[in-house]
Structure formats: structure tokens, C-alpha cells
Design a protein that fits this description.
Number of strands: 0
Order of helices and strands: HHHHHHHHHHHHHHHHHHHHHHHHHH
Helix content: 55-70%
Radius of gyration: 23 Å
CATH architecture of one domain: Alpha Horseshoe
Strand content: under 5%
Shape: globular
Largest sheet: none
Number of helices: 26
Length: 472
């Protein structure tokens, strides 16, 4: 649901990393709640040492008992996603409440989601809305994005734009995509293909497939004047040191949108944004170095950039850390380390990581061979059309007994709700076709959830006062 630790240290060689960990343990043993939290994160993520969720939970608990709200949030996340034996929503709700009482806005947002879906708590849409509103007011981007959806489905478009913009400015990919939809059709705002293109491109950079698909449909409708306007805006903002504009300008040069394709210029702007700590720029620049695009191929530099972004919980950088270990690119080859990184991201719902982990489990490379677990990850990733996953599931399910295959299906169904917050709705072809039909008809494609359906005016007319009234 949320990242556990937001500090991104510089890349350290293994020896210095071990020394830093020993110093951290001394502080934690002396009762330093921040050090305990960080040790919990290191064990939870397998960074700087072995992946050890039991030890991580123990450190999180000590930190939470010392009054650290972020540690309580992490314990809620561990219970929600289930580390051993499946998710425990009751325990997750308990820790999220404690974290919320200590001022963690992400815990409020997560509680809002759980109340909307009846996970570990009684389903209560009014309480869900209050949690989301408070979390959004405190600056939580996921809550802001959900409110943007909710107001959109109530046809309160100005409020929808306000909350989606607030979330998008914090890097929320779904809200970037939804702003692109809103501006492309003029839902409550003047139709503006310049704004639509800007937000679609940013959404695509933040790896929202829906934004990429919709951008492809929009490109032919954007005039030369709109591209010129977008390029001017990017150059002006990028020159003023705005990292997101630098990222966007780098993407325009890389793709040749509105400007001649120039990968060297793309690298220049991506590097400036990466130096300012922009996570997606670090990942994109790592991609350029890894593949030798606009710069000579340099696996060492790519690994360094991926590492910086991976520490800030960038999913795609974490996958590329695994790929680097798998092939020995920029780091000593270790299939075991690769499997560890793929597992970390797979457990948070990434189809590519699930597919890669399944392949290693099937072959027994870097990890103990386990056909049942390989089948489970293949089934989960095939539900989202990860290449090769369906074929692997079909092959592995035939190697299992009927009872084992049924058990895998049941476990996949059990795991799916725990992954729902991090995993997009399955990208089945029929849903994509329906979305494309809406785009062609000039209608926005915004996904509903339980909360937006409940408060939709076509379903319920007695909306609460705080939602029915316009905010100033």
C-alpha cells in the first residue's frame, strides 16, 4: 500500500554497507526508534543483508511500541499483504488505526479503503469517506486520487480536477492518467489537448499502461501548435529547475514528440532531474545507460541509478536490480540475489516480477525448485497478461496433481484481494477494447471502485453534506 521507508541512501559498496548496518544495530539496541524502523525496513526488503520478515516485524514492533507511527503503518502493511499464512485484515486494521492516531496519513487512506471494501472491519462508506477526506487534506496522494474518482462519478468535475491535480503533482500515476482523460474530453474543464498530452505523457512515464494506450490514441489529434505549446512549457519549467518538467522534456526528446528525436538531449534533461532526486528520472536514466541510448552503455552507472530509485521503492528499478544480478551487469552475478529482488516486487503485485520469479522457481536457479509456487506466481501474472505466464501456468498445472492445481487456484483467489491495492485491474483484452471504444467516442475512461459506485447519484441520492456541497 505504501512504502515503508522514504530515505534513499547513496549506493554503498558491500563492506561499507555492512559497517553501516552494524552501527545501525547499535543505535537500535539502545532504543533509537528511527534506527529500529530502518532495520525493520532493511529486513523487510532484504537490503544490506538477508530477507528476514520475522526479524523485520520484531524491529517494527519495537519501534511502534516506542511511539513511531510509521512503524505501526509498516506492521499494518505486513499484516494486510500477508507474510506467512495469508493476509490478516483484522490485525492490519488494528495497526493502521494506531498509525492514524499518530498522524500517518497513509494509514488513514488505507483504513478508508478497508472500510469501503469491508476488509477486517464492517463495511462503512461514510467512515471510509471521512478517512479519505482527512488523509487527502493531510496530503496523501492515494486518498486524493480516490477522492478525484469519487467526485468525478458524482459529476462534480471541478472538485475532481482539484484532487486529481493535487495527487498528480505528487507523482500519482492514476491521477495523471485521469487528468489526461478529463482534459481530452473537457469534462468540467475546457477541452485542452495540450494539458491532455502533458498528463498522458507523465502518466506513461509513471508506467500506467492505460495512459500509454490513450496517449497513442491522442497523438494524431494534437495539433502542431499544441505540441509547440507543450515544448515551450517544458523548456521554461525545466530551465527553472522543475524536476518533473525536466523528466517530461527528456521524454519528449527521447520519443521525438513535438521536437526532433535527440537521445543525447534526453539524457541531459533526465540527468538534471535525477540529480534533483526525481525517482522516475533515475530509473529512466538508468535505462538509457543500461541500453546505451544517448550515452555509451555503462552497466555500472545504470546499476547505481537503479539502486538509488530502488531504495525509494520504485518497482521497475527493483526489477532491473534483479535483472542486473541475474546477468551480472554492473554487479557480481548472483541468481540468488536476483530471485530475492524479484520476490520482493512480486509480493507487491508486479506481473513482470511474478513471471520472472516463476521462471526461477520452475528451473530451480538461485532458489529451491518449487513447481507449486512457480504455478501460483504464473497464475497471478497470467491474470494480467504477463508474456509467457499463461503458457507456463498451463504447463505447470499439468505437472501438478488435480488437488494441488485446485489448491493453487484457491490460494491465488485468496491472495488477489491482498494484492488489489498495489495491482491494477487485470488488463484483459475485452476491457482494453471497451476502453478504446470509449476513447473513440470521446468519453473518459475512469475506473470505478466500491466507494464511487456507492455514492454515484444514479445509485444513491442522499449523499452526505460534506460531499454534496461544493468545496471553495
Amino acid at each position: 500500500m505504501d512504502r515503508a521507508f522514504s530515505g534513499a541512501p547513496e549506493f554503498l559498496p558491500p563492506a561499507r554497507e555492512r559497517a553501516a548496518r552494524r552501527a545501525l544495530v547499535k543505535r537500535a539496541e539502545a532504543g533509537d526508534a528511527a534506527a529500529q524502523l530502518r532495520l525493520g525496513y532493511l529486513g523487510d526488503e532484504g537490503l544490506g543483508g538477508p530477507l528476514d520478515r520475522s526479524a523485520a516485524a520484531a524491529w517494527y514492533r519495537r519501534s511502534a511500541e516506542g511511539g513511531n507511527g510509521r512503524a505501526a503503518l509498516c506492521l499494518g502493511r505486513m499484516s494486510y499483504f500477508g507474510q506467512d499464512g495469508g493476509p490478516d485484515y483484522l490485525e492490519a486494521a488494528r495497526w493502521y488505526r494506531l498509525a492514524a492516531e499518530r498522524g500517518e496519513s497513509a494509514a488513514l487512506a488505507n483504513l478508508g479503503y478497508m472500510y469501503a471494501h469491508g476488509l477486517g472491519v464492517a463495511c462503512d462508506y461514510g467512515l471510509s469517506l471521512r478517512c479519505l477526506l482527512r488523509a487527502a487534506q493531510l496530503g496523501d496522494s492515494k486518498a486524493q486520487s480516490n477522492l478525484g474518482l469519487l467526485y468525478f462519478h458524482r459529476h462534480e468535475f471541478s472538485e475532481s480536477v482539484r484532487w486529481h491535480r493535487a495527487a498528480a503533482e505528487q507523482g500519482n500515476g492514476p491521477s495523471m492518467c485521469n487528468l489526461g482523460h478529463i482534459y481530452s474530453v473537457g469534462a468540467g474543464v475546457p477541452r485542452d489537448l495540450f494539458e491532455a498530452a502533458k498528463w498522458y505523457i507523465l502518466g506513461a512515464l509513471y508506467r500506467k499502461e492505460q495512459a500509454s494506450d490513450n496517449l497513442a490514441a491522442l497523438i494524431g489529434r494534437v495539433s502542431d501548435a499544441d505540441w509547440a505549446k507543450l515544448t515551450r512549457w517544458c523548456r521554461r519549467s525545466a530551465a527553472a529547475g522543475k524536476p518533473r518538467a525536466q523528466l517530461l522534456l527528456g521524454a519528449l526528446y527521447h520519443e521525438g514528440l513535438g521536437v526532433p528525436k535527440d537521445d543525447e538531449a534526453a539524457v541531459k534533461w533526465l540527468r538534471l532531474a535525477a540529480l534533483r532526486g526525481n525517482t522516475k528520472s533515475q530509473w529512466r536514466l538508468g535505462y538509457m545507460y543500461y541500453n546505451g541510448i544517448g550515452v555509451p552503455r555503462d552497466y555500472d552507472e545504470a546499476f547505481r541509478l537503479y539502486w538509488q530509485a530502488a531504495w525509494k521503492n520504485d518497482t521497475h528499478s527493483q526489477i532491473m536490480i534483479g535483472e542486473s544480478y541475474l546477468h551480472g551487469h554492473g554487479v557480481r552475478r548472483s541468481i540468488g540475489e536476483a530471485a530475492k529482488w524479484f520476490r520482493r516486487v512480486a509480493e507487491r503485485g508486479s506481473p513482470p516480477a511474478q513471471s520472472r520469479l516463476a521462471a526461477l522457481l520452475e528451473s530451480g536457479r538461485g532458489t529451491r525448485r518449487n513447481l507449486r509456487e512457480a504455478a501460483l506466481w504464473s497464475l497471478l501474472s497470467s491474470a494480467q497478461d504477463a508474456p509467457g505466464s499463461r503458457e507456463r501456468w498451463d504447463r505447470l498445472s499439468r505437472l501438478l496433481t488435480p488437488a494441488e492445481a485446485d489448491g493453487v487456484r484457491r490460494e491465488a483467489v485468496m491472495r488477489w484481494p491482498a494484492l488489489a491495492w498495489k495491482t491494477p485491474v487485470p488488463a484483459l483484452r475485452r476491457l482494453l477494447a471497451a476502453a478504446n471504444e470509449k476513447i473513440a467516442a470521446g468519453r473518459p475512461v475512469l475506473k470505478e471502485n466500491a466507494l464511487t459506485r456507492f455514492w454515484s447519484p444514479t445509485v444513491r441520492s442522499d449523499a452526505p453534506a460534506e460531499l454534496a456541497q461544493k468545496k471553495s
